[in-house]
Amino acid sequence: MKIKSYLDKIVKPSANMLLNIIPGKKKLSQYLRLALECVLPWRTIYPEIVMVTTTGCTLKCKNCNNLMPYYHSPYSIDPGELIRDFDRLMAGMDSCVRFSLIGGEPFIYPHLKELLQHAIESKKTMYVGLVTNATIIPNEEMLEILKNPKVVVSISNYGLALQKVDELIEVFKKNGIRYIPDNSASWVKPGGTEFRGKSLTKLKKEYAGCFSFIIKLNLFNI
Length: 222
Known about the structure:
By secondary structure, the protein is α/β, with parallel strands linked by helices. The chain is built from 7 helices and 5 strands. The longest helix is centred in the first third of the chain and has 19 residues, at about 5-20.
């Protein structure tokens, strides 16, 4: 990988994730770890990896980026399969700044506690993220897991009456749980799923420029 590409795709996003996105104070050891992972050329670090747990959701947003309303039969992924995938991913890298679990709505995933705990216990995850639409207040058992200092919960606020954003934030504050509020009620419309006549070359170019593009090093050769 070229130096500029490495800086743009790995070093800058990793540093931004730690310094500007993850809330709260960080330890000196975390800065040193990030510097070590990014500077040494034989190390493989990922700024963020996202894992889908379920296609079930408590909302039916028309412009959902993950197209969840279009699943006619929502389903949850077997926890054993997800844990095996997680272990294979971690075996192919040295570190991940934030490993995030999403849905649908992850708080309706029946095996979230098991998967979340497994990700927390990994020495290769610096932080473990969750993305919730704030329609569900976690129970006491889940709150105890979320108190772990590695956990950061992102709260999507769409300005809907069904959401319990303020209540959820108060619960998190009371329990000392890290959270990232997203108060933007605007949407980034991904467009429809219809064929638009784009060539394969055009699609590859657009994909390579997407903010969600994942650089393929040797991660999947496992």
